[in-house]
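Inverse folding, one chain.
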């Protein structure tokens, strides 16, 4: 049961990463409107995008791993 809850939380985090990425990409396009301190603002947003990417990767891995373990356990119980 704990693995299902963990997998669901990871799935929610992975699903939330795409809208967050869209917001950051929108921030990148807004930077080009005001050309003051362009490089510093772009670096900050790119770091945020990289962090969201790492979180999405780890949450996706956690989601698939936990649900695969639960599925294998159910498969073993059904075969008995």
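Residues assigned per position:
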């Amino acid at each position: 049961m704990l693995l299902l809850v963990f997998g669901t939380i990871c799935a929610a985090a992975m699903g939330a990463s795409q809208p967050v990425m869209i917001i950051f990409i929108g921030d990148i396009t807004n930077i080009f409107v005001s050309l003051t301190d362009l490089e510093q603002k772009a670096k900050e947003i790119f770091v945020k995008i990289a962090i969201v990417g790492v979180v999405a990767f780890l949450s996706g891995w956690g989601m698939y791993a936990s649900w695969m373990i639960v599925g294998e356990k159910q498969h073993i119980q059904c075969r008995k």
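The CA atoms of residues 31 and 38 lie 6 Å apart. Helices lie at 2-31, 38-79.
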